[in-house]
Amino acid sequence: MKTINTNLQSTNCITSNQYTLDNLLNLCKLTDNIKNIASTKEGLQYLKSLLPHKRAILYFKQASTRTFLSFQNACSILGISTSDVRDTSTSSEMKGETELDAIKTFSQYTDLIIMRHPDSEFIYEVSDCLNNLSNNTRLINAGSGSNEHPTQALLDFYTMYKYGLLEGKKIAFVGDLFRSRAVRSLALLLNKVSGTKLYFIAPEKYQIKNDILQQLNIDYELTDNIEKVLPEVDVVYMVRLQDEYKGFWNGEDFIDTKRYSINKNNINTLKENAIILHPLPRRNEISIEIDKNHRAKYWEQCQNGMWVRVALIADMFGIDKI
Ligand code: NCD
């Protein structure tokens, strides 16, 4: 049994801004440790014995495949039982109950609320509400509108850590950066790593918003020139068109993925050791044929999501010694 003191010092996960570089590296080490233990049946049994006295609810008011399932499985790995509300047409919100009353109800039954919600600010309201109740229910932001997705950023960070692609490395984000909560949260985490340079590659109206740029202390560049940047970078982070959110502009909502994509024509312009990440789901910004290229790491990234979430939840309940 190894001791890793993650010192995340928080029982909630709300925003990328709450983490220091030390927290992040410790979380990566805890994740490695957990994955290692989980490689045997005895190890999995041990992990399941850690939190069988805890219950979690997944309150997901937006579509989800990976985030929902990886959290559900992460809880199961730790012995935490789960319930969920995904379709509020079957809950008392249908009878006019407010969302905050729904949250107060969840907190009567469970120790952890994992929430995805279309309103960017609601996570803060919920956090205040739970603090006022002071019944110790933990809260995880599993996506707050188009603003933040901190646990996605944690698993992205872990995947880059595994390939030694953090300090001093160049990372390009490509696609609809304007509405990508995954990109926004990851940029805030990478801001803690010295010497990284971020390239935001998008047509002008899809560029990342200023509120994120204003927080960056590291070097960054905004461009629409994907051809020029691809050969320079160590990580390419692709995102889809997030057209479930309004664009705040008139006219069509469309990015030319013939240009803003990774495909058989441009893949070999990337460095040999560069990696391609994507939070998924993808549309056509990464061709299927790229999946077998050695640089494609998005399925591994997807699996890392479950293990990072195991580590995060374990840590939130004070299990930093495994
Ligand atoms: C992302 C999300 O929901 O923000 N997906 C995810 O959580 N894996 C990105 C997306 O939906 O495009």
Properties at a glance:
alpha/beta; Rossmann fold; single chain; 322 residues; disordered N terminus; 5-stranded parallel beta sheet; globular; 2 domains; binds N-carbamoyl-L-aspartate; 34% helix; 10 helices
**Low-pLDDT stretches:** 1-5
CATH architecture of the largest domain: 3-Layer(aba) Sandwich
Quote the average pLDDT.
Answer: 95
Would you list the SSEs in sequence order as H and E?
Answer: EHHEHEHEHEHEHEHEHEEH
Termini, distance in Å?
6 Å
- What spatial order of strands do you see in the largest sheet? 1-5-4-2-3
CATH topology of the largest domain: Rossmann fold
Helix and strand topology:
Layout: E1 12-13, H1 21-37, H2 41-48, E2 55-60, H3 66-77, E3 81-85, H4 99-109, E4 112-117, H5 122-133, E5 138-144, H6 150-162, E6 170-174, H7 181-190, E7 197-201, H8 210-213, E8 219-223, H9 226-229, E9 235-238, E10 275-277, H10 298-316
Parallel strand pairs: 1-5, 2-3, 2-4, 4-5, 6-7, 6-9, 7-8, 9-10
Helix pairs in contact: 1-6, 1-10, 3-10, 4-5, 6-7, 6-10
How is this structure best described in words?
- The protein has 322 residues and is α/β, with parallel strands linked by helices.
- Helices cover 34% and strands 15% of the residues.
- It folds into two domains: 12-148 and 305-316, Rossmann fold, CATH 3.40.50; 164-296, Rossmann fold, CATH 3.40.50.
- It contains ten helices and ten strands.
- A five-stranded parallel beta sheet has the order 1-5-4-2-3, sandwiched between helices. Strands 8-7-6-9-10 form a five-stranded parallel beta sheet, with helices on one face.
- The longest helix is centred in the last third of the chain and has 19 residues, at 298-316.
- The relative contact order is 0.17.
- Residues 1-5 have low confidence and may be disordered.
- It binds N-carbamoyl-L-aspartate (NCD).
